[in-house]
Amino acid sequence: MTRLLCFVLLVLALGLGFAWLADRPGELSIIWQGQRIAMSLMVAATIAVSLMAAVIFVWWLLRVVLTSPHALQRHFRARKRDRGYQALSTGLIAAGAGDAVSARKMLSRAKGLIRADQEPLVHLLEAQAALIEGNHDEARRKFELMADDPETRELGLRGLYLEARRLGASEAARQYAERAAETAPQLPWAADAVLEQHSRTGEWDEALKLVDHHKPASPEERRQLDRRKVVLLTARARAGLESQTDPKAARDDALAALKIDENFIPAGLIAAKAYLREGNLRKASNILERLWKANPHPDVGRLFVHSRIGDSALDRLKRAEKLEALHPNNAETLFAVAQAALDARQFAVARPKAEAAARLAPSERTFLLLADIEDADTGDQGRIRHWMNQALKAPRDPAWTADGVTSPEWLPVSPVTGKLDAFEWKTPVSEWQGPIENGAVNSAEEAIRTLPPVAIADRAAASVPAKKPEPAGEIALKPNAGTQAVERAGPPPATTARTAPAVDEPKPFFGGLPDDPGVKSEVHKEAGTASGGLRFF
């Protein structure tokens, strides 16, 4: 387009020049060697322009003739290079698709058309073809050649890093990643690998320096860096708190993590524990209350309830009720109040709170808590077994989970893969139990009816020796002169149990039911009666 515009301007200038000369006629006379040459000015200008055009044409023709061999050679070289790049592109596509035969064929064609020292991608295609064929030794040699070339250093180091990871050589992988991070700190895989290695070895200071030096390129990357910084600060605070070398520094790290993410529960727990060690109950309670109000967590509730040393069970119940005021109508809140009420033996509070928690979010520990309440309140083994049975069928409790394993507390690094920030608070993976035929919860009466007979002592007659139960029905204990008779609470009328030795029933070879503790022998029964103790089984 530029050349066309210049040509148009040149023609326009010539036309204007000739028009200007035509409007101003004149003669040009030249005397040379006794000859006089006279012509008009228009003719002289035309001859001059024609001579210039002829000189330019002759020069162009001579230039074409003189440079044609080199131009022809350059043309064939460019055509050969284009064919080589086409073969290289096809080979890389075949290698990416896993076609080893086509990749090797295109590699041979590309090497015949392009010199490997002029095009580093030939080494990459060779390494990819070797990896597809399973020849890892050859692939490593090619990656080493690429690592020595400044143009392909990062690509070769990445290939060597992946090969070291495949072989389990963590130290070699760390060295390759560090070399790549030194030359190109913006590489995400190199920074992640070095950060992961520092995290595995507990070098939290070096890991934090690496995160601080990384410059985010997008808002999403900024959020990821903030999350990593929160985890690393919490990990360093946790290590400092456990070692007890500098609790104040651990507290400062945890507070710095909370400034970035105020709802990060592990950081809040560590900060609260550090304040409690300093005797600052008020600041610890403020942190725990803020966490609980945002997201109730059992670890937060447990630490808040037991944060004050020397509290009685009733005092702990009051602190649990304070949590309920902060976040009412929540399963975790109700569970915390029920647990504290059980410790205080306030069964009138514990039972309805636990049942409400079970209705909101049925879980294993909620039904186990109901079993504990039943055991402490009534001691009715049928009801206890009923709640235990519900606990077996209930969903598993959430826990700190990472890579299929659970931990009683949050950890910064997965013990399986060494990944940073792998632990999440979620329900662990459980085995599929099959289709549920009946989702209704069995009643306590049904659970008691299907249980084998057990001996139960009445709370009102705790000092009286226990009596033999009848094989069925709800039982009631009544003292009697001499021997004690066990009567049924409902119809038909009660019958007196005899003291004659019972006939041994045949036992199946596979034992009793999984939840059946069985009935102790007569020797154990007599020993229990003689000692006057209470025995449930």
From TrEMBL:
The chain crosses the membrane at residues 37-62, 83-101. Signal peptide: none annotated. Residues 26-133 form the HemY N-terminal domain. Keywords: Membrane, Transmembrane, Transmembrane helix. Residues 517-527 have a biased composition (Basic and acidic residues). It comes from the Bacteria. Residues 481-537 are annotated as: Disordered. It holds the Pfam family HemY_N. The keyword Transmembrane helix applies. It is found in: Membrane. GO terms for cellular component: membrane. SUPFAM superfamilies: TPR-like (SSF48452). This is HemY protein. It comes from Mycoplana azooxidifex.
